[in-house]
Every structure is written in C-alpha cells, then in structure tokens.
Design brief:
Layout lengths: L1 H26 L6 H5 L2 H23 L2 H7 L2 H12 L7 H20 L1
Helix pairs in contact: 1-3, 1-5, 5-6
C-alpha cells in the first residue's frame, strides 16, 4: 500500500509539472494579462495535481522514514525526462541519460533496502 501511495504521489507530481509546462506553452506568443493567465485550464490542472500529490505525500511520510521516502521521489526526474524527450521532443544528451540510469539505480537500491 505504501509503495502504491508513493507511486501515486510521484505520478501526480509529474502530471502537475507537465500541466505547468503546457500552461506556459499556451501563453507563448500571446500578450495575456495576469488574470487571463490565471484562468488557464492547464494551470488549474497543475495546481490540482500538485495539491493531490502533496496530500498523498503526507500519507507516505506517515508510513516511511523521510530518508527513504524522499530519495524515492527522484523517480520524478526519470519520468519527466522521458516526457520531455518523447512528448515535448526535447533533446536529451547522453550525459543526461547516464544520470537517469544512476538515479534509477539509486531508487532500486533504496527500494530493495526497505
């Protein structure tokens, strides 16, 4: 159950970050007033995802030591890198991929420990 909560918190945080990116992309090339930017649906989706992710994170912290739980959130780095590459078509260099592999190795080691 704790692992599922952790994955859900991570997924919601990632979705929130993706929605933030989509919000600012929707503003690109437009001269919108702050009020118009605040009404962007992507921004509200980002806030909802990040808010729900925070609530799930609090549940995770009730069940896991922060020294184990927090490093596990680095899986977000991996997920966002994959989204950046395959959804937003951003260039990811080899050194970045090596970093992703190291992060995944660290998460696997920590998951194996607990």
């Amino acid at each position: 159950m704790t692992f599922l909560l952790l994955l859900s918190a991570s997924a919601l945080t990632c979705l929130g970050q993706i929605a933030q990116k989509l919000a600012v992309e929707s503003w690109r090339g437009q001269t919108l007033a702050l009020a118009a930017k605040l009404l962007t649906p992507w921004l509200w989706l980002a806030l909802a995802c990040l808010g729900c992710g925070l609530l799930l994170w609090l549940l995770v912290l009730q069940r896991l030591e922060v020294g184990i739980a927090y490093p596990m959130l680095s899986i977000n780095f991996v997920l966002i890198t994959l989204v950046a590459r395959f959804v937003f078509r951003e260039a990811i260099d080899r050194r970045h991929w090596y970093g992703v592999a190291l992060v995944m190795s660290g998460v696997a080691l920590l998951g194996w420990q607990s």
